[in-house]
Amino acid sequence: MTKRILVIGGGIAGPVTALALRRAGFEPVVFEAYDRSADEAGRS
């Protein structure tokens, strides 16, 4: 039985954590507040 773990946000650390958890045998699910990156934030 695979254990599911929720990763809530975390910027770049969220997906990196999820990758590490998958390698450790878990099933990570990542939830992020925004559907795209903030690269364009503050630009006019």
TrEMBL record:
A Pfam family assignment: DAO
Annotated signal peptide: none
Xref: Gene3D superfamilies: FAD/NAD(P)-binding domain (3.50.50.60)
Xref: InterPro entries: FAD-dep_OxRdtase, FAD/NAD-bd_sf
Domain FAD dependent oxidoreductase: 4-40
Highest taxon of source: Bacteria
Protein name: FAD-dependent oxidoreductase
